[in-house]
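Dear U.,

For the methods section draft, I wanted the exact inputs and outputs in one place so we can describe them consistently. I've listed the two proteins in the order they'll appear in the manuscript figures. Please don't edit the C-alpha cell lines directly; just add comments below if something needs changing.

First protein:
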Amino acid sequence: MISMSQTVAVHPLDLGCFVRPASETGGPTARVEPAVAYLVRHPRGLILFDTGIGAGSPETDAHYRPRRRGLPEALAAVGARVEDVTLVVNCHLHFDHCGGNPLFAGKPVLVQRAELAAARRTGYTIDALVDFPGAVYEALDGEAEPVPGVHVVPTPGHTPGHQSLVVRRPDGGAVVLAGQAHDTASAYAADELARRAAANGGPEPLPGHPAWLDRLADFAPRRAVFAHDHAAWEAPGPGRNA
C-alpha cells in the first residue's frame, strides 16, 4: 500500500501476467510481464486504475499466454468489492488493461476521446471489452480532476490516447500511476534524467524525452508505478540511501 494520508491511499492489485514474445520485447527472448492495476481510496470513493487482462480472443491468448487473476479476488485482498468502485480510469484500452471493464456496467469510465476512437477500430483490442452492455464512458480531451487531488494527465506514446493518474500527497508531492507510459521503471527513470538534464542546461546532444514529463514534473512526483513492472521509480532526494 502507498499511503498518502489517513484518507487517501493507493493499493496495487496483482491481476496476473502474460508472456510478451521476443518480437515485441526489442531483445532476443520473450519476457514475462505482470498486469498491475491500482485502487485509489479517496474520501469521495474508490477509483480503479485499469481492470486487468481481458478474455474473448483465442488468437490473443495463444500469442500472449496470459495467466489471469480475477478482479473480484484482487479487490477482496485489499478489503474492497467490485460494487464498491465508484469510478474507473483506463490508461488505455488494450485488452490487458480493460479486461474487467464489463464488470462495471453503469459506472463511469474515464478515457481520452482519442483512445476511445482508436479502440473502436478493428484489430485494436477485444471489441466486447469496450462496447459492452451498460458501458458509460466519459471521454476526455486532455486533463481532468475527477475528485480533488486526483488528476488525469495525457501521456501519449504507447497509444495516442494513453493517460496516467496523478494522486497528490498532503506534503505537496505526488504519486504517478503511469500505466504503460513506460514499460519499466528504469525506462521512466532514463527519460526523467534526460528531462532534468535538459532543464538544467546540460551539454548537447542530449537524449529526448516525452514532452508530458514536463507536465508531470509540475506535480513534484515522489514516486511512479507501472502496469507491467513491480518496480517503482523514486525521486532522488537528500539523505536517501542507495
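Second protein (the one for the lower panel):
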Amino acid sequence: MPLGRRSTADDALVGLSLSGKTAIVTGGASGIGVETVRALAKAGAQVVLAVRNVGAGEAVAARLRAELPASAGALEVRPLDLGDLGSVRAFVSSWGDRPLQLLINNAGIMATPPGQTAQGFELQVGTNHLGHFALTTGLLPALTRGAPARVVTVSSDLHRQGNGARLVSALEKKPTAYTPFGAYGDSKLGNVLFTRALAKRLPAGVEAFSVHPGVIATNLTRSMHPALAWSWKVLGPLLMKSPQQGAATSVFGATAPSLSGRSGEYLANCAPKTPARDALDDTLAERVWQLSEQALATT
C-alpha cells in the first residue's frame, strides 16, 4: 500500500530492520517525538531521547519499554537544551566517538512571545534552527563513522511564511518587527535552507532531508502566546493528523531506500515536495550557513 497523508510511522518502516543502528531524536519526550522514538525502537534501533526535561524523558522511556516488544532496541535519555549552545556543546562532547546512523532533529517551539536564547538570539530561530545546526555539525564525525547515515530535520510548510531577510537579521542579532508566526516561519525556513546547504557538504554515505510533518495534535501550543494557542486549539482539529501519522515522514526520511541519492530534498506526506522559492535559493542557503557558523564561533 503506498505511503501518504494518513500513513503512520510504523507503516513507513514495514519490511525494514534497524537492528544495530543508533538514533538520536531531539524532543523525544513529547508529541511526534515520542512516536518517532517508538517506531525506530520497535524496528530495532537503539534510540537516544535528547530532551530538555530529563525527568519527562525518563518517564516516556519507561512507558515505552513497558509497551514495546522484547525485540525492540534499547532506550537512553540524555539532556539537551537547544536554546543554549553550551548545552548543545556538552551533548556533542559527551557523545565522544560513538558512531551514529540516524539524527532526527525533531524538537521545536512555536509562535512564542518575544524572547531570546541563552546566547541572545531570537528565541525561535535560535532554538529551532541554530540549536539544531550546532548539534548536527557537531555530530558530523559520529555520522561519518556510522555511515550509511541520515539527518532528518523537522521543518514545516509554514516555512512559506518565513522571510530570508528576517532570518539573516535574526542570525546577525539585528532587531526586526516581531510576529510570533513570522519568527516561527523564519526558523522553519532556516531548517530547509540548512538541509540544502548541509547536503552539499556531507561525505559519501551521509544524507540529509527536511520534512513537513503536517498539522499535529500535540502540546506544541504550550509555548504559544495564549490568544494564538486558543485559536490553534479551536481550528487545529479540522486539519490535524495524529502523532503517529505526524511521525511518519520523519521516519520515512530517515529510512526509506527510495530516497537514496536525493539528499537535500524537502519531504511531506512521505514523498518529496517542492518547498518555497526562498528555500531553493542557494545563495541564501550559503549566507545562512556562514552566519550560523559565525554565531557558533562567537558565542
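Candidate sentences for the figure legend, describing the second protein: The radius of gyration is 17 Å. The beta strands are 22-26, 46-51, 75-79, 102-105, 149-154, 206-212, 266-268, 271-272.

Thanks,
Y.
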